[in-house]
Amino acid sequence: MVNKQKYLKNIIDYTTKNYKVITFCFIFISVPFVYWLVYATGGITYVYSHTMYIPILIAGMLLGKKWGFLTALIAGILLGPLMPLDTIQMTQQEPINYIYRIVIFLLIGYLSGFFSERLKEKNLLIKQMYSFNQETHIPNTTALLDYIINQKNTNVNRITVSIYINNADTFRDAMGVSTYSKFMQAIYANLNSLVNNSGSIGQSGVSKLWLFMSSNDIKDDAKNIYNCLSQLIYIDHIPYYVDFSVGALSVDAGKQINSLELFSFTDASANFAQMNKLPYVIYNEDVFKKKKNIELIRAFREALEKDELYLVFQPKIDLKTLKPYGLEALIRWKHPVLGLIMPNEFIDLIEETQLIHSLTKYVLNKAISTIYQIEKLNYLLSLSINISVKNLFDKNFSSDIIKIISKSKVNPKQVEIEITETALMLNPEESKSYLRKIYDEGIQISLDDYGTGYSSLAYLSAFPIHILKIDRIFINAISEKPAVKQIVKSTIELAHQLGYKVVAEGVETKEDLDDLIELGCDMAQGYYFAKPMKYEDLLIWLSNHK
Ligand code: C2E
Ligand code: MG
Ligand code: MG
Asked: Which atom of ligand 1 is least distant from the CA of 391?
């Protein structure tokens, strides 16, 4: 069991050592000074003797009743038998005079010490309450951070370590708080013997410990911590194993540290160790990326609420008339610090969370209101949105999308959904049935990035699809590589036979365009016609391409 009093006393002693020395110096100088002052100004008859209360009170309050009493006694003697009533006539004081003063001095010195000690005890009690985990009685992270802040010696290498006790939660639920508390205390004791006065440990939450200590070699220390945690814990002679993950980070000598930030890095490392089933992870590039990704996901949640997202629109051109017939809505994220973030940098991350549903709904709602606004300006254009496979496999997605469109005044035929071939192939049967519901409502379905996966068109013909979008890696090579041109040609022909329209993505040059027209491609999209634009720029572009 941790000795809380002793633990806190160590911290408090550490922080108070300095001012104790200063107080002693002050008393050592001020008491003789007041003696001199009283003597020089004519003796005890005059008012200056009251100055002596200052060192007596300070001694009592800062050094306790013992020193308060002693200072009062010395001061009483100096201003008593040793001090004349009048220094010019050298008349002595009546004993009753100085005895009474000495008693008053002693009372003041003693009582100020007594009350300040009571106050310190209360203070210690409060500190105890917020410095320890209430269940395990292990110092918590507040105590640890306190310890780190008061570390004066930064001229040694140090390490910060996060230790996740993965089975602590279940242990607590299964065995009860008292056994859990013994379990955690035993782990703490093992680690403490390793830290051996060169650092400190704090518990955060039910299952996490943070450790800070001086270190010679982070790898050795991580291994030692690993070995230490691998020991079985015996409670009432029953052995229990500790399931743990460790993340560590070294702090070079002389470097100032922001402890909370450092522990966020080691937490990420321990998380990484936990996910990848590694015994310990020393903070590295992989963890950094993972941490950045998690931060990006967290920021995205706020981005949705704070309106940091917006849509840009890229026109799609009908190759028979060379006029725009539709638009593709593409998401953009204007991060307040990181600036513009493109979808390729965050869509994959967001797809790992439920946020992808909020994103798609956001895009759909914005897209529908855009079609509506554009229609009022007399442009009849379709608008496509990109959806993720996670959307498709969400039970409510197809009905939600149908509801949103039917509530609006927009014709479902004007709304197009783009989904990639690779996404469909993750679960072809389920994809088919979800797509069918959307298809039956008249909403257009496009197969995006066609050609980047491995499925044949013959296989894809079983899916309810209206449009095939040939990926830009083919279109970019069409005018230079005859073989690619041949592939595109046969893809277009086969797609037509299956009843699909074909869109060429990424048309960048006049040659690409000419080839595509020659091959009978129906529609095209690409920088040659227009880059994705904000709504206001789109209106200008449309007015120039009526
Ligand atoms: P995508 O659906 O295939 O969109 C076409 C991408 O190609 C867009 O990139 C567009 O800016 C770019 N592009 C268009 N024409 C050309 C060209 O001529 N040359 C080149 N080099 N690029 C061209 P963007 O906007 O960065 O989007 C990348 C991908 O991110 C999209 O590929 C789509 O898969 C995804 N995405 C974009 N917005 C959303 C969204 O709202 N939801 C979801 N789930 N995914 C989105
Ligand atoms: Mg697309
Ligand atoms: Mg594409």
From this structure: 44
